Amino acid sequence: MSGDHEQTLVRTSRIGIIGAGISGIAAAKELSSYDPIVFEATGSIGGVWKHCSFASTKLQTPRCDFEFSDYPWPERDNASFPSHVEILDYLHGFAVHFDVLKYVQFNSRVVEIGYVGEHATSASPRRDPGMPNSSEYGSLLKGQPVWEVAVETGPTGTLQWYAFEFIVMCIGKYGDVPRMPVFPRNRGQEVFRGEVLHTMDYARLDEAGAKNLLKGKKVAVVGYKKSAIDLAVESAEANQGPDGQACTMVIRTLHWTVPSYWIWGLPFFLFYSTRSSQFLHEKPDQSLLWTLLCPLLSPMRRAISKFIESYLVWKLPLVKYGLKPDHPFEEDYASCQMAILPENFFSEADKGKILFKRAPSRWWFWSKGIEFEDGSKLEADVVILATGYDGKQKLQSVLPEPFRSLVVDSSGVMPLYRGTIHPMIPNMAFVGYIESVSNLHTAELRCKWLAQLVNDKFKLPPVQAMIRQVTQEMDVMKRATRFYKRHCISTFSINHSDELCREMGWSPWRKSNWLSEAFSPYSSQDYADQKVNEKND
């Protein structure tokens, strides 16, 4: 331990968890036998559901598709999409039921992480069995501290240091660090006479404050993903009546939106969420025969995408408003960018309360609003940037070198084996950074896998084998969608779960019969502990 903070070391523990969102509380539950310390920067659990949600924010799926395997929703057959308040209640109920809150230190923000592994120096770590150019990754618990963590606590920002053998990073891709547009000199928000805020700032407003911000104002929302769509509806609802102003959505990239999970009378899961449907899609680690077969199946994949697109164009006024994307539906699904529309979105557009402005080129501010590269201008009183978050920067801000530079690879994505272990960063796991159709389900299963790994129930492959697997996975994503940097496994999510199960010694076939196995969607309930059949039993 370095001498400059030797006297302020508070505690040495085996496992530390950073973040108490969905991934953090799942990790704490699965690793509870180690009495982990969970650092949560705010005063509550819930992550983005607590700090990045609006009054209208709802889950994108029915509740039965968003639940822990051993903690079902009280009314799991309710087909409605739960609000963010209901989700927070559910997460709190889970944390209380499994006594997870006792591990959480609230209002404890991690500001720095230092490497103190074997042979580490104050300048940089040397090679040890867990370092990148060693053939083996090494044990996750080495019997001595590998990381030191600096934590700010309390209103005065007191700095305390902790030491851990293993750290689980669960701070997620969203929240904390907004992704902000870069503007030419003298054309940024400083020249705009109105108000500019990011969705993260908007989420901090209470319902009355949000309504006061929007009511009677010309609002411009920059973006066309779920948060932007919800914001446009909230603005329209705050501006009802003859004196209400319209909200304009400034759209750079169009994405497919869906009114419900039914397509021409068929349940949506039949197209992408069963073994038989994912059979059509390429997956990592597939056999040579399957590699040769996949191109032959591409016409069927395109036909399914066209079938869904035909319904959406028929059901929604996409052509009328110029909102039909040029890329196939399957590319949005493969990148986890499909959004469920609020029921009144297009009805508000029909009333003129929501307008649309395509802006495929650059834009900047002028004194009364937004100016576009083609010379056109949009007047606005309030501009809300629904431009997303920079989760990688959030990670890099606390990690030391050389690991900070290793977080993302040359293609701009995090190379995580099984969505959890970075082959180049020792004694650290990352949960919640690779997306799927149900992030809760994949986060929980990865935490179960991680707990088995920590308990030495199985060993990781050599570093080069993990890198090779991650590279194959990324190549699959690149061939599936132009938006591959979203790092989404939706088209091979069942295969991903299968691989986790195999390494844990579980049977990957979780259904009761072959018919269900082929045509029923998978959910967390299929991986409940009571259904586990381990090889060694």
Question: What do these coordinates show?
Answer:
By secondary structure, the protein is an alpha/beta fold. The chain has 17 helices and 19 strands. It has helices spanning 22-30, 48-51, 84-97, 199-203, 207-214, 226-238, 269-272, 275-278, 288-315, 329-334, 345-350, 391-396, 403-406, 439-454, 463-480, 493-504, 514-519; strands at 9-18, 37-39, 104-105, 108-115, 147-153, 158-169, 195-198, 219-222, 247-251, 257-258, 262-263, 266-267, 339-340, 354-358, 363-366, 369-372, 377-379, 382-385, 428-430. Strands 1, 2, 3, 4, 5, 6 and 19 form a seven-stranded mixed β-sheet that branches. A five-stranded parallel β-sheet has the order 7-18-8-9-14. Strands 15-16-17 form a three-stranded antiparallel β-sheet, with no helix packed on it. Helix 1 links the parallel strand 1 and strand 2 (37-39). Helix 14 runs parallel beside helix 16 (493-504). The longest helix is centred in the middle third of the chain and has 28 residues, at 288-315. It is globular.
